[in-house]
């Protein structure tokens, strides 16, 4: 049986044509048991109905015609043939996709439909596995030291103890002989061992909790061997004796700083002030026994902050030997 010629690899035929042609052409390869029809030159092969209507015609040039096909019922499938062998079959996706025409213009948007009812909430899914703990972050910077709290209230004085019994009066001793009058003594030099020093220029200090020395470089009057270091904030006692020590401090703004005099590096309680309310006035004095070489320092302490002294009598320390 001759092959059906084609101009391309695949051609599409209506499904009615496929049905009719498959009844005549079962395969494109001729076998020994096949029925072979040889067409005369210029002739063709025709299949007619009982009423002599032509239903199938094969032309001598290989064209296959189905004259009744235009009037046949429409079908929903396409038929294609292989361009090399002429074999009929269903169309491939590539062939059917080529039939799609160009995309038409987008139509106008339709009216928005009514909002549907809210569906029920779905069941909660299972919790995911807990992730691994992340590495610890770096240690933060150390915060500033807080201001010392106020001193507690002084406790009540205990009751006074009972007065003991008076002892018996001893007998009066005999009067001793009058001694020889000694020579007149020299003028006392006790008052010459004294000093005073001041800060009169309104200096500013960065006070720390452990204490900041106040320099007293102005108006120094050092007598009897008193000496001071290069920073004018450490004074040295020249001789052993009982000394009157006095100081005062005036600042431009009230603070909770404390004031004190250190003797050999330790605060002397009678010369220590720890205010419970902010103040800018400090002062104290006492009499204390000091040894040769003892050192005195005037300080502000107990806060972390800036303090400015008054001009004039901003800070003063006076030390005077009593005997």
Largest sheet: 6 strands, antiparallel
Could you list the spans in which at least 5 consecutive residues all have pLDDT below 50? Answer: 1-28, 181-189
Give the averaged pLDDT, no decimals. Answer: 79
Structural class: mainly beta
As a percent range, the share of strand residues is 25-35%
Distance from first to last alpha carbon: 153 Å
SSE arrangement, N to C: EHEEEEEHEEEEEEEEEEEEE
Radius of gyration, Cα only, in angstroms?
Answer: 63 Å
DSSP strand tally: 19
Q: Supply the number of helical segments.
A: 2
How would you describe this protein?
With 323 residues, the protein is mainly β. It contains 2 helices and 19 strands. Strands 9, 11, 12, 14, 15 and 17 form a 6-stranded antiparallel beta sheet that branches. The longest helix has 10 residues, at 15-24. The N and C termini lie far apart (153 Å).
Task: Give a quick precis of the structure.
The chain is mainly β. It is built from two helices and 19 strands.
Spell out the blueprint of helices and strands.
Elements: E1 10-14, H1 15-24, E2 45-48, E3 54-58, E4 64-65, E5 78-82, E6 88-90, H2 93-97, E7 194-201, E8 204-207, E9 212-213, E10 218-222, E11 227-228, E12 235-236, E13 241-255, E14 258-263, E15 266-273, E16 279-290, E17 295-301, E18 305-308, E19 311-321
Antiparallel strand pairs: 1-5, 2-3, 3-4, 5-6, 7-10, 7-19, 8-18, 9-17, 11-12, 12-17, 13-16, 13-19, 14-15, 14-17
Tags for this model:
mainly beta, five-stranded antiparallel beta sheet, 5% helix, rod-shaped, disordered N terminus
């Amino acid at each position: 049986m001759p092959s059906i010629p084609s101009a391309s690899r695949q051609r599409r035929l209506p499904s009615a044509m496929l049905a009719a042609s498959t009844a005549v052409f079962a395969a494109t390869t001729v076998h020994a048991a096949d029925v072979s029809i040889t067409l005369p030159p210029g002739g063709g092969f025709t299949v007619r109905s009982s009423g002599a209507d032509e239903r199938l015609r094969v032309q001598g040039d290989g064209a296959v015609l189905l004259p009744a096909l235009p009037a046949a019922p429409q079908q929903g499938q396409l038929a294609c043939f292989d361009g090399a062998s002429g074999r009929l079959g269903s169309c491939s996706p590539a062939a059917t996709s080529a039939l799609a025409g160009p995309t038409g213009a987008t139509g106008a948007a339709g009216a928005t439909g009514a909002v549907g009812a809210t569906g029920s909430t779905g069941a909660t899914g299972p919790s995911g596995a807990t992730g691994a703990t992340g590495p610890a972050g770096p240690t933060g910077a150390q915060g500033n030291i807080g201001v010392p709290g106020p001193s507690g209230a002084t406790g009540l004085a205990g009751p006074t103890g009972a007065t003991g019994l008076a002892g018996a009066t001893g007998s009066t001793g005999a009067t001793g002989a009058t001694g020889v009058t000694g020579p007149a003594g020299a003028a006392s030099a006790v008052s010459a061992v004294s000093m005073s020093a001041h800060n009169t220029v309104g200096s500013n200090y960065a006070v720390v909790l452990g204490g900041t020395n106040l320099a007293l470089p102005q108006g120094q009057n050092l007598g009897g061997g008193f000496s001071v270091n290069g920073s004018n904030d450490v004074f040295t006692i020249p001789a052993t004796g009982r000394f009157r020590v006095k100081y005062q401090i005036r600042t431009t703004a009230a603070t909770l700083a404390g004031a004190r005099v250190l003797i050999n590096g330790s605060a002397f309680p009678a010369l220590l002030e720890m205010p419970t309310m902010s103040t800018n006035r400090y002062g104290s004095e006492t009499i204390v026994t000091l040894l040769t070489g003892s050192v005195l320092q005037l300080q502000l302490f107990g806060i972390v902050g800036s303090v400015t002294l008054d001009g004039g009598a901003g800070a003063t320390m006076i030390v005077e030997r009593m005997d």
